[in-house]
Design brief:
With 132 residues, this protein is α/β, with parallel strands linked by helices. 48% of the residues lie in helices and 15% in strands. It has a four-stranded parallel beta sheet with strand order 3-2-1-4, with helices on both faces. The chain is globular, with a radius of gyration of 16 Å. The two termini are 27 Å apart.
C-alpha cells in the first residue's frame, strides 16, 4: 500500500488505520516536496529524517519515499511508478483529502484521549511501548 500524505502529524489516524489494514504487506508513506530540484534538494534530507523520526515514534511499520516535483500530480505519479522494494510494488494507493484548513496535531490528541481512557493503556503510552 502506498499512502500519499502531506503532513504526518495531521494524517496519523489514517496512517494507523492503513498500518492495521496492510496485514503484513508492504506499506510506503509517500510525500511530494513541491519545487525545483535545485531549491528543494537541501530540504529533502531534513524532511526524510523527520519522517523517519515520526515512524519510530508512532511504531508504524512502513517505508518512507519522498520525491521532488513541480506539482503534486507529477510527484504522485513519480511515487506510484518508482516506489517499492525490488519486485514488491504497492498495489493499492491511498490519497489523503486536501483542504485549506490548518493541520491539526492528531497524534498528540489520540495519545491524550487514550491516556484518559485506561490505566493500562496510559502505562504503555508513557513507556512508549508498542504492546502491553
Amino acid at each position: 500500500m502506498l499512502f500519499l500524505a502531506s503532513n504526518p502529524r495531521a494524517s496519523y489516524p489514517m496512517m494507523d488505520f492503513i498500518n492495521d489494514m496492510k496485514k503484513g504487506g508492504l506499506y510506503i508513506l509517500g510525500h511530494v516536496i513541491i519545487g525545483s530540484f535545485e531549491e528543494a534538494n537541501a530540504d529533502l534530507h531534513e524532511q526524510f529524517r523527520t519522517w523517519l523520526d515520526f515512524i519510530d515514534c508512532t511504531k508504524l511499520k512502513a517505508f518512507v519515499e519522498l520525491t521532488i516535483a513541480e506539482s503534486v500530480q507529477m510527484g504522485a505519479r513519480s511515487l506510484m511508478m518508482n516506489s517499492g522494494l525490488g519486485g514488491m510494488k504497492p498495489n493499492t494507493i491511498m490519497l489523503g483529502f486536501y483542504d485549506d484548513s490548518i493541520p491539526k496535531d492528531t497524534h498528540n490528541a489520540v495519545k491524550t484521549a487514550l491516556r484518559r481512557t485506561n490505566p493500562l493503556i496510559r502505562h504503555c503510552i508513557d513507556r512508549n511501548s508498542g504492546s502491553c
